[in-house]
Amino acid sequence: MKLNVDWHKNNKMPKNPSIDERIKWHLAHVKNCECRPIEGKILEEINKRGMKI
Ligand SMILES: [Zn+2]
């Protein structure tokens, strides 16, 4: 587990994010940082949409 502090500083999750915003954030996040895996509802939504992680 490694936190990419700079990435997080520059990529804040929006307030009250929509599901699309959360998916977008997590896809960008997983490429840049290892602090948190994609899981649960977000992972389900990504799979439902046939998006690649
Ligand atoms: Zn992170």
Task: Please give a structural write-up.
The chain has 53 residues and is mainly alpha-helical. The chain has helices at residues 5-10, 19-32, 40-48. It has one domain (1-6, 19-53). The longest helix has 14 residues, at 19-32. Zinc ion binds next to loops.
SSE map:
Layout: H1 5-10, H2 19-32, H3 40-48
Helix pairs in contact: 2-3
The structure holds zinc ion.
Strand content: under 5%
The kinds of small molecule bound in this structure are: zinc ion
List unreliable stretches of 5+ residues. none
Q: Shape from CA axes?
A: globular
What descriptive keywords fit this protein?
single chain, about 55 residues, mainly alpha, globular, binds zinc ion
Structure at a glance:
Helices cover 55% and strands 0% of the residues.
